[in-house]
Amino acid sequence: MVEVIQLLINGILLGSILALGAVGATMIFGVLRFAHFAHGDFMAVGAYFALSVVTVFNLPVLAALPVAMAATAGLAVAIDQLVYRRIRRVQPVILLISSFATALVLRSLIQMIWGSSNQVYQTGIQLPWRIGPFTLKPDHLLIFLAATGLVITVHLFLTRTRLGKAMRAMSDNMNLALITGIPADRVIMATWAIGGALAAAAGVFLGMDTRLHPVMGWTLLLPIFAATILGGIGRPYGAIFGGLVIGCAMELSTLIIPGSYKPAVAFAIMVATLVFRPQGIIKGTV
Amino acid sequence: MDLAGLLAYGLFFLNLVGIYAIMALGLNMQWGMTGQFNIGIAGFFAVGAYTSAILTTGPSPTWLGGFDLPFLLGLAATVLVCLPIAWLVGRITARLRTDYLAIATIGIAEIIRLFFLNEGWLTNGVRGIPGIEKPLGTGNGGYLLIVTAFVALIWLLVEMARRSPWGRVLRAIRDNEPATAAAGKDIARFRLQAFVVGSCIMALAGGLYAHFVGFVSPEAFRPLYGTFLVWVMLIAGGSGNNLGAILGALVVWLIWSSTEMLAGVLPTDLIGSESAFRVFLIGVLLQIILVSRPQGMLPERRPPMPGEPR
Question: Closest Cα partner for A39 from A95, A102, A97?
Fold first, then answer.
């Protein structure tokens, strides 16, 4: 029992990282109608941006977080303007191939700039807190609180601002939204900016929890898509729920099968969703 | 480089072009003709390579080996092993929309790689399987003849399939699914067939690859080499066009190989890691093709209308 609760704690932590990635991925999927395969690599780029800020200015990671988020948001918008915008009108599937190429370009740029070995934000061991039989690292609490804060911010943006409402409208019904005069280009740019920023945050948290590596984001891409599909595509709240479910399922699965098959668990849940309830647990918009 | 060295390199180069051309033909069956977005090529490639490697090598204490089967039986086994796997995958995914299929196939490829990585009793894990010999003691030159024969054979079969009524249905599904369904075609069945055939072609390429390189390890089946390059080849060559797939394999592998030389010339300080720089260049190349010439070098030819001269 103790073991199960400890795994659940780890699962919620992983789940909140996944949720941040999945919220961005689901919004991009909802507004632009394609699965963005470079999303995991946005996470990695964000994590490495933060690493540069940490090493150059000698700042704590959380201070570097906003910088990394802003830089990744800028990068996402730039890639959209440079590449995706030009092929948006052709076929969604061409966008998909293109995002696959973006993923590889970003990953190889990371290797070229920062090297391909494992890196960490802080060296040294952080003493975990012991609460009864459970252990919790201070970083974990920090990650959980920061992720919750970001999710609440996104919630307020989507429900309280004009741009956020426009974004939901485009995701719900593209044609109706366009007829009512929603500025599509601005909404698309905002979607990329938010998606990029959230991915960067997820990447930084992942780097705090484990380590930085050029493929760190790519390995989480599948669980993120699983969370997106489970929660219903185009549904940010569904994505949060999906992220937590997938995170907990991945951690709990280590009770039964070897830990190296963790990504397969996320995948199995995703396939089951696609086969039995393709619209997602909460009905998706796409 | 002297002449003999150049010749040896040329043989090595052309062998790999041939193996990639077979994969591109398999992908053309799925994407070019049917519009199925499979980005799990590396998975089927790996299934083929490992099947052939395990069945044709001598006994070993560390992995399941010792079958010592002849080359051609090993190749036949790649198709036989891939068949049920591809059927199962296709069965689950044939009804999925393009983007779901993409996510599902890349997941399958990663799981297949994880399986080969973790099940050491079968595959020797991360250390890989060495000592896979070329048939009849051929060198790269002799092996090139075998590879070329397979490219020609697969091309012939795929081209015949493309011109057949069956191929017409596939293209109809790609271009207008509701209309094809309205014409009474069982879309899921045709999709499943195209998926299985294409995947088995990829597995066959995997078998040829294992014998050419002589060594397989999970590292060779990362999405980059197995999947991404094949996609660049098909898109650059012209999806839907079988000759385009072969031409794409030649041109893209030429570019890929020359980036190695370019990376060798440029100072390491500038580009960091050589392999990363090459991936970067090929990724940018694909973006440029997609933005400027998405139909590829040899675009698909529209079949003649009834009564129109060929």
Answer: A102
